[in-house]
Design a protein that fits this description.
The protein has 37 helices and 20 strands. By secondary structure, it is an alpha/beta fold. It has a 3-stranded antiparallel sheet with strand order 3-10-4, with helices on both faces.
Length: 878
């Protein structure tokens, strides 16, 4: 039979869907992610014991006193195991997936019950959904939606759907046909027959189906954890891959408690919602002779009151806790570079990956960032980084081990460089195994090792090299079978064999902490079958350097020696399961100053260097011109880095110059001299200090987009009025440049009558420029240099060969009279202060991107992307 390329067809279909329907997948991801976040905010937002009490009240309402008490004990145990957040994340995922599944499954089952053709069409589809290995659902889920909650929810919905549909159909079909016929005989409509006869009688079966939906949804938590869905699934997955028996037991107990609670509650819900269930419950309660109080169940109103009261208390405590968190955030240290920005890290459970990832988690948190961390297999990890769900990962072995992943996703990734290398791949035996010193020595010794080489994850590149090249090169094919497992399983087998003094050969690599723990031999590779050593790289998604320029810069310079890395790995091993970050903190205490070396703050290692006048308060003012906003918030950040205190006020030019002259303000950075602000300077110059120009010359100009051909100077505008609809888009009519344009420029170049200058506002002019550029339409606008528009758009300044606009001005820093006496150090900095047109334009663009109210943070982002600017503009110790 010819080979059917079914897999290739599926790959092609997936590629087409990714290329053409991304917007649908993004919308689904946004909806499901929003639902999950909302449910998780409710379930995980309250005080754990109060939330446990709410769950207990629900159990009291549905099942009675004893189940309520056991519920509280069970959820309190989850909290005591420090797994509350993970349990609520899992419960949130189950709730979202179950609700969506039920909303789809029940109507589908009703339709199938009432239409045999639909039933026949659905049956094979449900068979495939129910029997297809659940792991398969994760592959398209990750490819379409990235790592995170969404693929887990999608896989759960598909996996849990069949019993909901089948049980609903079965329940309705099992309703006595004579009852249905009797209802129809009395003239009951099909709708009423369904809602008043079939559904009430089928409800116990339907509820059993819903119970199975929820149980199957919960059974998917571990698989969801493999796709980065978080919660208990991630904990169980981490325990499996790292062979952490204690963590596996704790996480397993939490899953069991959730499963029992959901099973018992959904089962008991039938007694509350179906007539048959209520009748059976009443019969049991009436027949009870002893311990009648254990059968007592409060009414719905009483239970609802209890839930609402507890929820209000939990919400109040949560608000209070949020306030204290905000207060703590307000007490930001000098190292708070990140300003709370979220950075998502991912890692493969390899030791150097764990060590470097948790090291950077700790460093970033010390620098004021918020971090998320996800353990994934190599495939989902690379896919997640490529999509931007994960910002970066530190364990890319290139050019060999992860070559396939790099080749597939390289267009969507940035290689931030190698931080360790060269590495080596090897087969290794314990030192007590005599006569086996090289790969060549393995030939003919298969029986000694039971014909097995203990490998790691099948997806690892070294496994492919071992199977395709190493075994073949040394003639070991057929004699040895490479056993794929996991890194933790391989290490467990190595450890067990060493304890028994049994021969074993395993895949290993350098660096690895196992070489420090055990006495091992690396088998020599005289034929070079493993290839040259690799480098361990940090890989981020495209655009990460723009999102977090400071972090990207740190990562590009990141290096660890073999001694540093192995000692860090051993410290994490000693800390034990679930305490990786504690191990990192312990290691950092033994390596003081390393954080400042790996993530230097502006102003030098060890934190920002304080100036001589640190502690003094500088009162700055500005009027809302772009270069004034940019320079003011730039200096606010730099002064605070140097230990000064600052205040910033926005004023119109008149009050600003008055405040400087009266000493109420100390300095402002946007005096346009000798023309624009001549009147203010002439009036107050005896009470002011000119600290010099920091930018110039400025210029006024008419500007067109670069795609407008043939228009390069003001003279070229003559005779081209129709192209621009006879309009020059201006700014406020009161602006001085508008008077110069109307009275001098148009006249000088013979443009009067052909062009009308449209007075508007600066923002309206910029909006018209932006709209025209998007449509590729000709437009001519008034503009000036410096301006951020030149950094954002590709524009042409029209030359002025006749000098109609006049000479350019200089932008000066102007301070109060005795400023130099009060701030001698700052005065020295300001006299040398200069920014180029490119620097100022890029700073203004960054502030525009940040938006109103975030000028200070945006200036900090620009400083992070220009890490030497503080030392250049505000040098200390010189």
């Amino acid at each position: 039979m010819p080979r059917v390329s079914f897999g290739e067809w599926v790959e092609s279909a997936v590629d087409w869907l990714q290329s053409n329907l991304t917007w649908i997948f993004d919308a689904i991801k946004a909806v499901l992610g929003g639902m999950y976040d909302g449910v998780n905010a409710v379930l995980g937002g309250g005080e754990p014991l109060l939330m446990a009490a709410i769950f207990a009240v629900i159990a009291f309402w549905l099942r009675g006193v004893v189940p309520a008490a056991l519920t509280f004990v069970g959820f309190a145990l989850i909290d005591s195991l420090a797994l509350w957040d993970e349990a609520m994340a899992t419960l949130s995922l189950v709730v979202v997936a179950a609700v969506i599944t039920i909303v789809i499954a029940v109507p589908m089952g009703i339709w199938a019950a009432r239409n045999n053709r639909v039933s026949a069409a659905l049956r094979p589809v449900l068979d495939v959904m129910q029997t297809m290995p659940a792991f398969v659902y994760l592959i398209p889920g990750v490819m379409f939606f990235g790592v995170g909650v969404t693929p887990g929810v999608i896989a759960t919905i598909v996996f849990a759907m069949p019993p909901g549909v089948r049980m609903t159909e079965l329940g309705i079909r099992q309703v006595d046909s004579e009852l249905v016929e009797a209802a129809e005989a009395f003239g009951t409509t099909p709708k009423d027959t369904l809602t008043r006869v079939q559904l009430p009688l089928a409800l116990p079966t339907i509820m059993a189906g819903i119970n199975q939906v929820i149980m199957l949804a919960l059974s998917m938590v571990v698989i969801g954890g493999m796709a980065g869905a978080g919660g208990l699934g991630e904990k169980v997955y981490a325990a499996i891959t790292q062979l952490q028996v204690g963590l596996a037991a704790e996480s397993g107990i939490a899953v069991v408690i959730l499963a029992m609670y959901l099973d018992r509650m959904t089962g008991a819900l039938n007694e509350r919602v179906s007539p048959l269930g209520r009748r059976a419950a009443a019969k049991v309660a009436a027949g009870a002779r002893r311990l009648k109080f254990t059968h007592y169940k409060p009414g719905t109103a009483v239970a609802m009151t209890g839930v609402v009261v507890l929820a209000l208390v939990a919400g109040g405590l949560n608000i209070a806790g949020s306030g204290s968190d905000d207060a703590r955030k307000g007490q930001a240290s000098d190292g708070n570079v990140g300003q709370g920005q979220k950075i998502n890290l991912g890692y493969i459970p390899w030791d150097e990956g764990i060590a470097s990832t948790f090291l950077w988690k700790e460093i970033l948190e010390q620098r004021g960032y918020t971090t998320g961390i996800t353990q994934l297999d190599a495939g989902p990890l690379y896919s997640g980084v490529a999509r931007g769900d994960i910002d970066f990962q530190t364990d890319s072995w290139l050019p060999t081990t992860h070559k396939d992943y790099w080749d597939k996703y390289s267009d969507q990734l940035d290689d931030l460089g190698s931080w360790y290398g060269p590495t080596s791949l090897e087969l290794t035996v314990p030192s007590y195994v005599e006569g086996i010193d090289s790969l060549a020595d393995l030939k003919g010794q298969g029986k000694k090792f039971n014909g097995k080489i203990i490998g790691i994850e099948a997806s690892a590149g070294m496994m492919g090299t071992l199977n395709k090249k190493v075994l073949k090169e040394y003639g070991l094919e057929g004699e040895y079978k490479v056993v794929s497992s996991s890194t933790s399983s391989m290490l467990a087998e190595l450890n067990a064999s060493i304890k028994k003094k049994e021969p074993v050969v395993v895949t290993l690599w350098s660096p690895h902490w196992a070489y420090g723990k055990h006495d091992l031999k690396k088998l020599e590779d005289p034929k070079g079958a493993w290839g040259k050593g690799e480098e361990v790289h940090t890989v981020a998604h495209k655009g990460f350097a723009k999102k977090a320029p400071a972090v990207a810069d740190w990562l590009k310079k990141f290096k660890l020696t073999e001694k540093q890395l192995t000692s860090l790995e051993n410290e994490i091993q000693d800390a034990g399961q679930g305490k990786e970050q504690d191990g990192v903190r312990s290691w950092l205490k033994k390596n003081p100053g390393l954080v400042d070396t790996l993530a230097p703050l502006p102003g030098g290692a060890g934190g920002t260097q304080e100036g001589k006048d640190a502690g003094k308060t500088v009162n700055m003012g500005y009027f809302p011109w772009d270069e004034a906003i940019a320079s003011t918030y730039l200096w606010q950040n730099m002064l605070e880095d140097r230990g000064y205190k600052t205040t910033v006020k926005q004023l119109d030019p008149g009050p600003l110059y008055t405040g400087l002259a009266q000493g109420q303000l100390d300095v402002q950075f946007d005096s346009w001299l000798p023309t624009t602000h001549k009147d203010y300077w002439d009036r107050y110059k005896d009470d002011l200090t000119d600290l010099g120009s920091w930018y110039g010359p400025t210029s006024l100009e008419l500007t067109v987009p670069s795609y407008v051909e043939g228009i390069d100077s003001l003279a070229d505008l003559k005779g081209q009025g129709k192209k621009f609809n006879g309009k020059i888009i201006g700014i406020e009519s009161s602006a001085g440049m508008m008077g110069t344009l109307n009275k001098k420029v148009l006249k000088e170049y013979g443009l009067e009558g052909e062009y009308k200058v449209v007075s508007s506002s600066t923002s309206s002019m910029l909006a018209e420029l932006n709209r025209s550029i998007k449509k590729k339409e000709p437009v001519v606008v008034t503009l000036w240099s410096p301006h951020w528009a030149y950094g954002k758009h590709d524009l042409k300044k029209l030359e002025d060969p006749k000098g109609a606009w006049g000479e350019g001005e200089q932008i000066h820093t102007v301070a109060k009279k005795d400023f130099a006496q009060d701030f001698p150090e700052f005065t020295g900095w300001l006299k040398d202060f200069k920014l180029s047109e490119a620097q100022l334009a890029s700073l203004e663009v960054e502030i525009q991107k940040g938006g109103a109210g975030k000028e200070k943070e945006s200036a900090r982002t620009w400083m992070d992307a220009n890490p030497d600017v503080v030392d250049q503009l505000a040098p200390v110790g010189s």
